[in-house]
Design brief:
Length: 265
C-alpha cells in the first residue's frame, strides 16, 4: 500500500477541550515526531479498541509531520500509511474528517507530541458545538477517549485521502530536471547535459533489452505451441489407426477357473 499525500490535520487555536493549541505545540509536534520514538496510529472517533477485528481497530499509522504558515496561522500537516479499509471508507465518503490528540507534556519533556489521529464523520461533534459544550461542562465530554487526561483533542478538519505513486520518477521527469538550467554554471550545465544523455542512453538500452527478451519469449512460445500441435496430431492419428485396425483383435474374455489354493505348511 502506498502512503498518502500530506494533508492538514490541525491549526493553532481552540480545541474541543476549551483550551488552545499553541503555535509552539504545532512546531514541537512537527519537530519531535518520530514513529520509532512513539508511533501515532489512526483510530476511529478517538476510540481505541483492543480487538484487531472490531470497528474500533487501527486504520493506519502517521509517518511524518510538517508545518505551513497559512492565512496568518501555523497549520500542522501529516503523512499517513492508511489501511485498505480506510482507503475504502474515504472513497465511500465515510470518515472524511480528522482530529488529532496531543500530549502537551510528552514523556515529561515539557514539549508537545502527536499521540493519535482520529477519523470521524461528525465535524460538529468535535468542532464549534463541542467547544461550547466543553467550556461549560464540569467534566470534559471527551475525557474517556483520551490516552492521558491532560491530552488535547483538536477540532475536526475535512481531508481528502490521496495516495502517492509507488514508482520512482519517470525518465522524462529525470531528464527535465537535469536539463533545467536556471541558476547553474556552465560547468554544471555541461555535467547535467551529459548525465541526461547518459540517462536516455541507459533507458534506451534497457528498453531494447526488454524488447529482445520479449521477442525471444514469443519465439519460444510459438515453438512450444507448434510442438504441442504436432504431438496432438500424432496422438489422434495413432488412436484412429488402432481403433480401425482389424489385425488387432479384441482380447478374449477371461473364463476364470475352479482351482483351489493349496497351502504348504
Amino acid at each position: 500500500m502506498a502512503k498518502a499525500k500530506k494533508f492538514r490535520v490541525a491549526t493553532e487555536g481552540a480545541t474541543c477541550d476549551g483550551r488552545t493549541i499553541e503555535r509552539a505545540h504545532i512546531e514541537q509536534m512537527a519537530a519531535n515526531y518520530n514513529p520509532k520514538t512513539y508511533g501515532a496510529r489512526v483510530n476511529m472517533e478517538h476510540y481505541k479498541g483492543l480487538l484487531p477485528d472490531g470497528p474500533f481497530k487501527r486504520y493506519g499509522d502517521v509517518l511524518e509531520l510538517s508545518t505551513a504558515e497559512e492565512e496568518g496561522k501555523l497549520r500542522l500537516y501529516a503523512v499517513i500509511d492508511p489501511t485498505d479499509e480506510l482507503v475504502s471508507m474515504t472513497k465511500a465518503r465515510q470518515k472524511v474528517y480528522t482530529s488529532i490528540e496531543i500530549n502537551p507534556n510528552f514523556a515529561d519533556t515539557g514539549e508537545a507530541y502527536l499521540v493519535g489521529l482520529a477519523v470521524t464523520d461528525d465535524p460538529a461533534s468535535l468542532g464549534t458545538e463541542m467547544l461550547q459544550f466543553a467550556a461549560k461542562a464540569t467534566t470534559n465530554p471527551l475525557a474517556s477517549r483520551k490516552s492521558h487526561p491532560g491530552n488535547l483533542i483538536s477540532e475536526a478538519i475535512e481531508f481528502t485521502l490521496e495516495l502517492e505513486e509507488e514508482s520512482g520518477p519517470s525518465i522524462f521527469s529525470r531528464v527535465k530536471e537535469l536539463l533545467s538550467i536556471k541558476g547553474k554554471t556552465d560547468a554544471a550545465k555541461f555535467a547535467d547535459q551529459s548525465a541526461a544523455i547518459e540517462a536516455l542512453a541507459t533507458n534506451q538500452r534497457e528498453l531494447q533489452e526488454n524488447i529482445t527478451a520479449l521477442h525471444s519469449m514469443q519465439k519460444t512460445v510459438e515453438e512450444q505451441a507448434a510442438a504441442i500441435t504436432a504431438l496432438t496430431e500424432q496422438h489422434e492419428s495413432i488412436v484412429t489407426k488402432l481403433s480401425a485396425d482389424p489385425a488387432s483383435p479384441a482380447r478374449p474374455a477371461a473364463t476364470g477357473g475352479n482351482a483351489e489354493p493349496v497351502t504348504d505348511c
